[in-house]
TrEMBL record:
It comes from the Eukaryota. The keyword Signal applies. CDD domains: EGF_Lam (cd00055). The keyword Signal applies. Residues 329-349, 378-404 form the Laminin EGF-like domain. InterPro entries: LE_dom, SrfA-induced_signal. It comes from Cavenderia fasciculata. This is EGF-like domain-containing protein. Residues 1-19 form the signal peptide. Keywords: Signal. Pfam families: EGF_laminin.
Length: 422
């Protein structure tokens, strides 16, 4: 309830309406004027509400400020509004983690899958705005992750080191280990599509000065199969950045490089007959969603313009829905992250300054901040340290992390707890 109230205050409660500059919102820098959105990669479509979903950081007067937001915009264009902020970002320190891409929007469960940059490997998973956590399900290093969610049948198809199927939509990392079904062992891919029992995989092959994309066809019922059980269905002479299969067509989004001819969105009937290949638009494509029922594609160009194109007929009607480059309309007043109240000066926690901008960080019951950037933010260093959250050093326990059921040794000013048998 408190969270809902806080959100309400954050986005509607200021009552100061339109703005151009932070100072117009009353109490800068605790109040900010959120104007143009700096867009990150990725687009989603909420079929139920007809809204396009994407993410980014709003500009204040002096550039990007505040949290990254998942935002929505009517599919016909119009104003952008925040659905929720991503409050799991740790902008600095060794435990940094910040969201940089929207992988998918799940319409039925209202869940955003995002990627967050981290020191070891980017985490990919669902973000929970209530608990303010990103649940890392996959950590992508050394392989291409391809994800296809089938919410209706509660299935997830995944390109990882193998092509796998899960008969659920993962919510926590443990779900990944509940009976994954290996479909094509040793096969990697970047995108997947499913029509009935047919599985389509898009896999890129990089040569020295060329790249091509092969579409393989298989069956979702193949268990423990190998690449030899796949049919090479079609070869597309460039890299693709987006892929969709409807019951009648393939849609490819291209952005590049070796053959600029292939920048754009293309469609080919699902028979794979390349002679019927058709160009829809010629923009460089970063991400795309297809509303096959309504015969529209929605896409994000390389330079962060969102557009729609009708699929029907010979001449697609292209409409620009949002551009990062068009002059800014007015923004709206909001509180700096975590602050509430009519003047945005209420902080139920501790104030942290980041590049001259304040954030209000909640404190946990043990007195530590909910998130941290550096060790000194944690209670009782050097028994504690910060890795995104405050932690006890290895084997230390207790509220103050200074209990050791063994012997403590000091080295360079840091304690270590040696427990016999561990
Ligand atoms: C946000 O502000 C920065 C710095 O003033 C500017 O370079 C950038 O283009 C702005 N972004 C948008 C989307 O207008
Ligand atoms: C799948 O193949 C692996 C390796 O060949 C084998 O160990 C495993 O038992 C097989 N699983 C099934 C369900 O056939």
């Amino acid at each position: 309830m408190i969270a809902i109230l806080a959100l309400f205050q954050l986005f509607q409660g200021l009552g100061k309406g339109d703005c151009q500059e932070n100072w117009q919102c009353g109490n800068a820098p605790f109040s900010i004027c959120q104007s143009k959105l700096n867009v990150y990669r990725g687009i989603g479509f909420d079929e139920e509400s007809g809204q396009l979903i994407f993410m980014g950081k709003f500009n204040g007067s002096n550039g990007p400020v505040g949290a990254t937001h998942i935002v929505q915009m009517p599919k016909t264009g119009g104003s952008i509004s925040s659905k929720f902020p991503i409050l799991s970002d740790i902008e600095q320190g060794s435990g940094y983690s910040f969201a940089y891409m929207l992988n998918a929007w799940l319409t039925k469960s209202n869940v955003a899958w995002i990627s967050a940059a981290q020191r070891m490997a980017p985490a990919v998973g669902p973000y929970n705005p209530t608990t303010k956590t990103l649940e890392g399900i996959w950590y992508t290093r050394g392989f291409n992750l391809g994800l296809l969610f089938d919410e209706i049948n509660s299935r997830t198809f995944v390109c990882e080191f193998d092509v796998n199927r899960y008969n659920l939509i993962p919510k926590v990392i443990e779900d990944r280990f509940i009976a994954p079904i290996t479909m094509y062992r040793g096969q990697q891919c970047r995108f997947l599509g499913v029509v009935g029992n047919d599985l389509y995989l898009a896999s890129m092959q990089y040569g020295e000065e060329s790249v091509s994309t092969t579409i393989f066809k298989g069956s979702i019922n193949c268990v423990n199969c190998t690449a030899a059980n796949l049919v090479s269905f079609m070869v597309f002479p460039d890299e693709i950045s987006a892929f969709h299969v409807s019951s009648t067509h393939f849609y490819f989004g291209g952005r590049r490089v070796y053959s600029p001819t292939y920048s754009g969105i293309w469609t080919v009937p699902i028979s794979g007959d390349l002679s019927q290949l058709r160009f829809l638009v010629s923009d460089k494509i970063q991400s795309m969603v297809v509303d096959a029922a309504q015969q529209y594609v929605y896409y994000q160009t390389d330079d962060n313009v969102f557009k729609s194109a009708s699929i029907q007929g010979n001449h697609p009607i292209v409409t620009t829905l949002y551009s990062e480059h068009s002059p800014s309309a007015s923004g709206s007043c909001a509180c700096a992250p975590g602050f509430t109240g009519a003047t945005c000066s209420t902080c139920d926690g501790r104030v942290r300054w980041v590049d001259g901008n304040p954030q209000c960080v909640k404190l946990l019951a043990n007195g530590n901040p909910e998130t941290c950037f550096y060790d000194w933010e944690c209670n009782n260093p050097p028994y504690t340290y910060c890795s995104g959250q405050c932690q006890c050093r290895n084997n230390f326990v207790g509220d103050r992390c200074d209990q050791c059921f063994g012997t403590i040794e000091w080295s360079y000013g840091y304690p270590s707890c040696n427990v016999p048998g561990i």
